[in-house]
């Protein structure tokens, strides 16, 4: 199963080529001459390296403790639940506070919590453990707290970008940042996590904590002109302003709800991917990490190519193409018997996701007023990301419910055909009702 990924030298050559392309594009548009952009770009790269490491390490840690799909799904549920609970308050805080300082504080909290994960691992004498539910509960609590800090950090990071680059540079800046996030978070992070887990289970989490500390230091060095402090009013009144703006812009509200459905489907399938990889594809930690680099390659390609594709096709047509590709990719994984096909599907899925993001994020960054950007972005993510924890639970519930009557393999494949059908329904709605 390692055969498709045996050429590690080829991966490093590809990574260097992509980084060179990113630098060339930045110099062409003068983005790289902006100190604040360089610092933000570097912080995003380093922070996402840690996220990529933990993206493999957390679910793999859960599978070392238990093989129960519902317990594994609980970790994913806990990680994503803060997007439902705290997105709206995070928007108010983002518009009230210094966004740079908020990013730094959130990353430092994430560093401390990640050391808490290390402590939990060291407290377990061996894997699998006898008290699986207790350890899963501890990991889930820490994952929930990490996710809560991530809500604040990510909302502030996306909100601060229009203060770093000009409006006509947003698509290019978003594309470059998402590309480096994919390189570090999916190209480098998961394979590195697989190697670190093979050395010692706590090792990837120690590295993760270090990346949060370094990212916080880079953001602290940014020099952004202070925003005019808004008049402090009640939290509810400020939140209502964001709600009123979103209700008055039907297209952005549509996009938020559609994103919620798409993310729920994606988490349903992503939660099961760790078991699919182990039990159907027969991969170990290192092999699974390398498989995820296929998705990273799609994200990198999407970050570099999708701004031009969106300009060529137009916003609406680009979104329809993205939805069609997402549905097709999940259908391929449902039927796949070859690692090559799964890798191709993951590549396609991430490319399509980047095409959707390049269009929709730049669209709302340009349209939403700066004094409302934090609140409206958080509302958008309330709809768009708040449904993800339920997708994770649905994935685990489907496998648990179907396995006794249909067998383990069919149960692990079923979420993918359901996901393909769900994405197809989102495409049909968008084709008929979405008009940017």
UniProtKB/TrEMBL annotation:
GO terms for cellular component: plasma membrane. PROSITE patterns: MFS (PS50850). This is Major facilitator superfamily (MFS) profile domain-containing protein. Its main location: membrane. The lineage of its organism: Bacteria, Pseudomonadati, Pseudomonadota, Alphaproteobacteria, Rhodobacterales. One of its GO terms (molecular function) is transmembrane transporter activity. The chain crosses the membrane at residues 37-58, 70-90, 102-122, 134-152, 183-203, 209-230, 251-276, 288-311, 318-336, 342-361, 382-402, 414-431. It comes from Falsiruegeria mediterranea M17. SUPFAM superfamilies: MFS general substrate transporter. It is a multi-pass membrane protein. The keyword Cell membrane applies. It is found in: Cell membrane. Keywords: Cell membrane, Membrane, Transmembrane, Transmembrane helix, Transport. Residues 252-436 form the Major facilitator superfamily (MFS) profile domain.
